[in-house]
Amino acid sequence: MLAELNYWTALPEIVILTAASLILLIDLFVPDDRRYISYWLTQLALLLATCVTLTTLRIDSIKGYHGLIVDDMLADFLRIACFGAVSLMLFYSRAYLAARNLFRGDVFVLTLFALLGMQVMITGANFLTLYLGLELMSLSLYALVASPRDHPRSSEAAMKYFVLGALASGMLLYGLSMIYGATGSLDLDTVARVIYGRQGSGLLLTFGLVFVVSGLAFKLAVVPYHMWVPDVYDGAPTAITLLIGTAPKIAAFAMTLRILSGALQGTAIDWQGMLIILCVLSMVLGNLIAISQTNIKRMLAYSTIANMGYMLLGFLTANRYGFSAAMFYTVSYVLTSLASFGIVLLLSRQGFESDQLDDFKGLNQRSPWWAFIMLLVMFSLAGLPPTIGFYAKFMVIEAAVNDGFVWLAVIAVMTSLIGAFYYLRIVKLMYFDDPVETQPILVRGDTWIALSANGLLLLILGVLPQQLIGLCAIALTQSNFP
Amino acid sequence: MRPRREQRSGEAASVGAPLTPYLSLAIWVPIVAGVAVLVVGRDREASFARWIAFAGALAGFLVTIPLWANFDTTTSAMQFVEMADWIPRFDIHYHLGVDGISMLFVLLNSFITVLVVWAGWEVITVRVAQYMAAFLIMSGLMNAVFAALDGILFYLVFEAMLIPMYLIIGVWGGPNRVYAAVKFFLYTLLGSLLMLVALIYLYSVSESFEILEWYNVPLAMPAQILLFVAFFLAFAVKVPMWPVHTWLPDAHVEAPTGGSVVLAAITLKIGAYGFVRFILPILPDASRYLSGFVITLSLIAVIYIGFVALVQTDMKKLIAYSSISHMGFVTLGFFLFSQLGIEGALAQMISHGFVSAAMFLCVGVMYDRMHSRLIADYGGVVNTMPKFAAFMMLFAMANVGLPGTSGFVGEFLVILAAVKANFWLGFAAAVTLILGAAYTLWMYKRVIFGDVANDNVAKLTDLSRREFWLLGAVAAAVLVMGVWPKPFIDVMHTSVTDLLQIVARTKL
């Protein structure tokens, strides 16, 4: 099995890598006023990669590159989700980037490299592959955060992100090396077998596990590894915040799943306890601190922290139902998050960052349509029907209750009540207050369509979620998770 | 986005599945009309939006008439059943059906929606389309609450209907509207979130989200008590019962007239409906065990809140407290576990739907002219608005529970049941009749009778044609139900008998 190359298992990665390199070259010869060529080439690359993934879709799970990567339903599904998220991010941020002199080839190329890193995180079947993917993604994102060079807050955010991110990567690597020491392998499947056979040292394994969970928790942005999130969300240009807040969450989920379940399922008892603490702290602190924010980007940052806590609620059951619930949660959160930052981007103009909550005042009078979309986003984040956020919360709570964690479910619903308060405040500002800003909202046609479709999808999937639920369940069943 | 409407014949508990999906129509006609109003309605041509909304509301009411006409009163099984797969992964179905308990509320709700659209006709001048759409969509959702036979479907619409109400209070409400809207939303959400955990727990026990299947699931006493607490919180906040009632006066006072009408007439009923659909049959042992607790809370609501109503200076607040007091009768009736008690409570719910709607409409009529809800600003209104005074007299009497009006039927039956259970219980409940008469008639006297109090009252004009027919429609309903309550009681009778049998069984 290990001897086979199976080069096509990484075909989408090859497409993205080739596209990134080509765009890097082509962009050199594109004049500044024709920058849209690089932009559309990037979109084309994403479309192509999606098509390639669909044509190489596999029902079963197959290893490639001598066991370094694995191609299965899970990988295909999450890859496509990442392509979609990045593509929407580019649609939403075009005007924003152009207005800030960031509509440049290097931004697109770095985005594609970050995406490549995410794909590797999703498909990795070996500790080293996963780690390389993580680093590729993180380094690209650090650079993207710092892309407005003369902007002190962005530089500060990038610095913070880089230092803390490097620390987390170090912890993860340290933990992985301990697990390697305990089991003698870097291959996920072999590690899993060794642990089930209990040939390794229990203590060393648990030590390694603590470090691995810490590193992953940092990437997922859950309490107490969340300190970087508000600063980075706030300091980065909103378009980049949108990127950081969406697709990497999918990749981080996949990596967590591959490591904790794919390799370390035998120690589930241990990591379950750790995840319970992370989960409860995130739900409580994330929601509580979000209340006091006046900046929408910081508020959404704390909302991310809380939402990742809910995702862990499904994950910590350590069974297939819980994983599929967590996966559904991640995908639906990313979809909602895309729309939320999309609206924030929409409201900002040349020289004006629409990052204060008060900028939403009276949006219903300025534009009923975008107010309605934002209403859907907010209710979806709050987990209220009839939006997709309700089913996301429903599924993780169901998974927890089914596994006997009724008390966790009660904490989850109580904290989501706290969450409802600050989401409702946005609705209140949009609908009940009078506008301070009277500038009309100008939207490009393609952005209009993409963002409207994104927003309505929250409602449509909130009424008819069965396809997505089924997809999440099948992807996990076909991918040999317990 | 309609779920498929396949009808599965041969369902064990369903008879008379019709060819026309009346319940789906009752739910979707108002919602589709609401969306249509939103799409075509512009603020500049508000009358267009009004007429579409009115047509939608009327159509929504008309499609519910067959529910009454074709209703089979001899069976307690669910009727007009519709069943379609929705989310197979969790065995969730689009399952609708009504029995004698829920059918009347679908009608009541659709009727009130027509009135509300009518009542907002000239009064609402800003964002008319959004206002009408919010009411229509909410009407469809509330019909779904009464018709849902699937736990998740119920929860979905139970929560979703908060959203339009939140906007109605917040956008078109009074000066303190934001506070009231947020309080309303968070209070009701607090209750219902625990219910979600309870529903999921029942699913994990029974592997099904079918409400009717839960009636037969054995549950140990500790589990029943915990589930009771979760459900009780959800529904007690909605009813609202003392001491979780404080959101209601705020919401009522700040909401526009239409919002107050729907809140009092329908939303409160949903809480009470939850008691008979969920708590009593699913948790019979816990219900019996904790009946003393609920009866105590009900009596406190009936008597203490009655006194609170007496001292109010704001008319809307007074009627709000009177609503809480009347709903105390309903919960009291449920937990006496007798035919008379439950039928009386249900009759009281229907009647209160008409009467509270009428009272809020009356206050709305005065508020539109004077822009004040304070009793002290009025006096001698009968001199300038004689027709209005006559209507309000009738509604005040119905609120008091005068024989011949709908208010009498329910209260009388509940008190009768209470006396049968325990004389002093009945005595305490009957005290409220005196209190109710005191606060309602005293308010009526101060507002309507006497000399003309000030220049503003002297300038009042009597009812317009629109208002006349509006109040006339409700007056007719109040009188019909008061004089001839038999058809209403007949509809409930078989279902209530069956419910009592379920409650009498033990599930331990």
Short description:
The complex is a heterodimer of chains A (482) and B (508). With 482 residues, chain A is an all-alpha fold.
Low-confidence stretches of chain B: 1-17
Q: Based on CA inertia axes, which overall geometry of chain B fits?
A: globular
Could you estimate the helical fraction of the residues of chain B in percent? over 70%
Q: Overall mean pLDDT score of chain B?
A: 86
Main beta-sheet annotation of chain A: 2 strands, antiparallel
What do the pLDDT scores of chain A average to?
89
Order of strands in the sheet with most strands of chain A = 1-2
> What is the rounded Rg of chain B?
22 Å
Radius of gyration of chain A: 21 Å
Shape of chain A: globular
Q: What is the β-strand count of chain B? A: 2
Number of H- or I-type helical stretches of chain A: 20
Question: What portion of residues of chain A belong to β-strands?
Answer: under 5%
Largest sheet of chain B: 2 strands, antiparallel
H/E topology pattern of chain A: HHEEHHHHHHHHHHHHHHHHHH
- Taken in chain order, the helices and strands of chain B follow as HHHEEHHHHHHHHHHHHHHHHHHHH
- Number of DSSP strand runs of chain A: 2
- Sheet-strand content of chain B, in percent, reads under 5%
Structural class of chain B: mainly alpha
State the assembly state of the protein chains: heterodimer
Terminal CA distance of chain B reads 41 Å
Description:
The complex is a heterodimer of chains A (482) and B (508). In chain A, strand 1 (62-64) and strand 2 form a beta hairpin. In chain A, helix 3 crosses helix 20, helix 11 (247-263) runs antiparallel to helix 14 (320-347) and helix 14 crosses helix 20. Chain A starts with 10 loop residues before the first helix and ends in a 5-residue tail after the last helix. Helices cover 75% and strands 1% of the residues of chain A. Chain A has 20 helices and two strands. Chain B contains 23 helices and two strands. In chain B, strand 1 and strand 2 form a beta hairpin. Chain B starts with 21 loop residues before the first helix and ends with a helix. The chains are: A mainly alpha (482), B mainly alpha (508). Chains A and B meet through helix 16, helix 17, helix 18 and helix 20 of A and helix 6, helix 7 and helix 8 of B.
